[in-house]
Design a protein that fits this description.
By secondary structure, the protein is α+β, with helices and mostly antiparallel strands. Helices cover 30% and strands 17% of the residues. The protein is globular. The two termini are 32 Å apart. Residues 24-402 form the Beta-lactamase-related domain. It comes from Amycolatopsis halotolerans. Keywords: Hydrolase.
Length: 410
């Protein structure tokens, strides 16, 4: 399978103004030239064919190595849709139902406790009145959290346990999941939305259902069938793996971080279904094309059309947006006008979101400022790759949407 992305159709034949699309190149090249991004690669596809590829800058600034179309990127939370798709293949086989309590397969969650009051050192908890169900994990309504949020005593408990931007050295996914089950939930399952380790727990659930490690499940059910040959939890081809950068405080100029950048260079102890994959633009393009085609690509069916439709519908109770139902903290997207499905954000009100994008668009992004979206109504997929932590550093995703849709003429 091809490891590079290249233009396959004239933009005009797909309803785009090519000159306007090149605004993407100029806009993000300025970020690179100003020292705010190391380099980037953007891919725009419509009607199943790539109409624009934009790139500029370096995959490794210090080595002077340029971004290539086959560069390997840490996609962090863009792993979550992959894990969600894997989980739904088991739903389709009848091995688990969306409403099933996860404690049937993960007994450590048999009696979850919910934070009621007190400090991180002396929390007062109460029993959960509702079990954590599969759909809670998929929709981030389980009550689990992340240590890096810094907004709730439960977040501090995660950090004290060694769970902030990663997991304690040497612990595998099963051991990490047991630790998360011991920590108090932020709220009763199903009561609110909170970005969390829920998709990592989902990955462990997938392992138990399959009776094999998560990387083998991904290879058998997604990567192999779709020809995603460069996607996995690590790569031995480290020359193609982009270096990872952080913004310097105050200036936002690039600071290389090889300690955190070691992610993806060797098999991790914990196979993180929430953020552990590395991939290429060509590979993830095949994943998004499968989603756009409602579960099928090149004669290979991963999911049924109805399953993809269900995953990309808004599952927040009352069909409200995240501003109404979510906690006002970091996530890989804005809250106004966006709901959440089973593994994806879902645009429900483009006016409230102040975006040119189409209602029904579903998307997600990663911590190193990568992002993708699928717009079924416009038969469109877009993806953006760089390696800058955190993704909240620059408004890349909003700007990219503006730049893509302003170039669309039909």
């Amino acid at each position: 399978m091809a490891t590079e992305v290249k233009v396959e159709a004239d933009p005009a034949d797909a309803g785009f103004d090519g000159a306007r699309l090149r605004r993407i190149d100029r806009h993000f090249a300025r970020y690179v030239d100003d020292g705010l991004l190391p380099g980037f690669l953007a891919v725009v596809s419509r009607h199943g064919r790539i109409v624009h590829v934009a790139s500029h800058g370096a995959r490794d600034v210090e080595a002077g190595a340029p971004v290539e179309t086959d560069t390997i990127w840490r996609i962090f939370s863009m792993t979550k849709p992959v894990t969600s798709v894997a989980a739904m293949t088991f739903v389709e086989e009848g091995l688990i139902d969306l409403t099933d309590p996860i404690s049937r397969w993960l007994p450590e969650f048999a009696e979850p406790r919910v934070y009621a009051k007190g400090s991180a050192l002396a929390p007062v908890t109460e029993p959960a009145t509702e079990p954590i169900r599969l759909w809670h994990l998929l929709s981030h309504t389980s009550g689990l959290t992340y240590g890096f949020h810094h907004t709730h005593p439960a977040d501090a408990i995660y950090r004290a346990g060694g769970y902030e931007w990663g997991t304690p050295p040497g612990l595998d996914l099963a051991e990490c999941t047991k630790a998360w089950a011991r920590f108090p939930l932020v709220f009763q399952p199903g009561a609110e939305w909170n970005y969390s380790v829920a998709t990592d727990v989902l990955g462990r659930l997938v392992e138990v259902l399959a009776g094999k490690p998560l990387d083998e499940v991904f290879a058998e059910r997604i990567f192999g069938p779709l020809g995603m040959t460069d996607t996995g939890f690590w790569t031995s081809d480290t020359d193609r793996l982009a270096a990872l950068y952080l913004p310097a405080p105050g200036t936002k100029q690039l600071v290389r971080n090889d300690a955190f950048g070691a992610v993806g260079t060797s098999r991790p102890a914990c196979l993180s279904g929430g953020g552990g994959l590395v991939s290429t633009a060509a590979d993830y393009h095949r994943f998004t094309q499968m989603l756009l085609r409602r579960g099928e690509l090149d004669g290979v069916r991963v999911l049924s059309p109805r399953t993809v439709d269900l995953m990309t519908a808004n599952h927040l109770p009352g069909h409200v947006d995240l501003e109404a139902y979510g906690r006002p903290l970091f996530a890989e997207m804005p809250f106004d006008g966006y709901g959440f499905g089973l593994g994806f954000s879902v645009l429900i009100d483009s006016v409230k979101a102040k975006t040119l994008a189409t209602p029904g668009e579903y998307a997600w992004g990663g911590a190193a400022s990568t992002a993708f979206w699928v717009d079924p109504d416009e038969d469109l997929t877009v993806a953006f790759y760089t390696q800058l932590l955190p993704s909240s550093t620059h408004p890349i995703r909003q700007q990219l949407r503006q730049l893509v849709y302003q170039a669309m003429l039909d």
